[in-house]
Design a protein that fits this description.
alpha/beta, eight-stranded parallel sheet, 320 residues
């Protein structure tokens, strides 16, 4: 898609125009949003549907390691796990992607060759985003050159919270352009808002629209590095945003909740949110992802329980 849709050309010409547009968006009913997210979280999923949902959730995981102690060996092991999550059951689906730091993107690219699993790399001075624009763009280009299929960028929350909306828009647009390879193909761009630092639901809605207008392929809740990460309510709000954006423009944008989603029960609640809010068009790893490191283990244990009738326990799945 173009970095700026024609429908929004006028509102992105100046900070004042963009501010008027964003502050003209409908205000978020926080009580209603949280109540709907909670109500959808009570939906029960029966055995056959649960088996399907578990496999779907596995296929949507961006299996992640973003630690200072990451080594090539750890990344290769994670890639092997993503490609073959349950060595005792070859019917288990593969994960969608392996998410790593930029300096590990080349290692992951080599390890995942031929698997169909994407290499996702964080960039733009993840997780704080506190770096000069040339540094952020170089970070992005290095990851793409190393073989990253997807870039997970962070916005400058300081700029956004200070009301510098056009600066936030231009950053995303510039990173989108940096995702383009010399041959014209491009890595998909996921834009991380760090919703736990945006303070209000209205800010999350505004950030979502900035990201979508600037060319994001996905909007993503969190880095997983702060106290409040993905929640049903903030994910529901972002799902409503992508639904409304497609209704207005015809362009579909993905959603990625990340951080704090650790159990099968959690994952299934999020899939219910997707189904009830945006429908089946988003129930694929092309348009919905989980950013997680430990979720896969619990999904595999629940999968084994459905298959064998016994709960195997964590010793029967590989440890991250």
């Amino acid at each position: 898609m173009p970095t700026t849709l024609p429908a929004f050309a006028d509102v992105t010409t100046s900070d004042s125009a963009l501010r008027r547009f964003l502050h003209g968006l409908p205000g978020v009913d926080a009580v209603g949003l949280e109540a709907r997210a909670a109500a959808l979280g009570t939906r029960s999923i029966k055995t056959t549907a649960k088996a399907f949902a578990i496999d779907l959730a596995i296929s949507m995981i961006d299996l992640t390691t973003l630690e200072g102690a990451d080594t090539p060996g750890k990344v290769r092991a994670l890639c092997a796990k993503g490609a073959n999550p349950d060595p005792t059951d070859r019917t288990s689906p593969r994960t969608a992607a392996i998410c790593v730091y930029p300096d590990m993107a080349g290692i992951a690219h080599e390890a995942l060759a031929g698997t169909g699993i994407k290499v996702a790399s964080v960039a733009t001075a993840f997780p704080a985003g506190r770096a000069a624009l040339p540094v952020k763009l170089a970070d992005t280009r290095d990851a793409v050159a190393a073989g990253a299929d997807e870039i997970d960028m962070v916005i400058d929350r300081g700029a956004f919270l200070a009301g510098r909306y056009l600066e936030t828009f231009e950053l995303i647009k510039a990173v989108k352009e940096a995702c383009v390879r010399p041959d014209g193909t491009a890595a998909r761009l996921k834009v991380i808002f760090e919703t736990g630092e945006l303070s209000t639901y209205d800010n999350i809605r505004r950030a979502s629209w900035i990201g979508m207008m600037a060319g994001a392929d996905f909007i993503k809740t969190s880095t997983g590095k702060v106290g409040v990460n993905a929640t049903p309510a903030n994910t529901l709000l972002m799902l409503e945003a992508v639904r409304d954006f497609r209704a207005q423009t015809g362009v579909q944008i993905g959603v990625k909740p990340a951080g704090g989603i650790r159990t099968t029960k959690d994952a299934l609640k999020f899939l219910v949110l997707v189904n009830e809010t945006v429908g089946e068009d988003w129930l694929t790893n092309e348009w919905f992802r989980f950013g997680a490191s430990s979720l896969l283990n619990d999904l595999l244990m629940q999968r084994q329980k459905l298959s064998t009738g016994r709960y195997s326990g964590p010793d029967y799945v590989t440890v991250d």
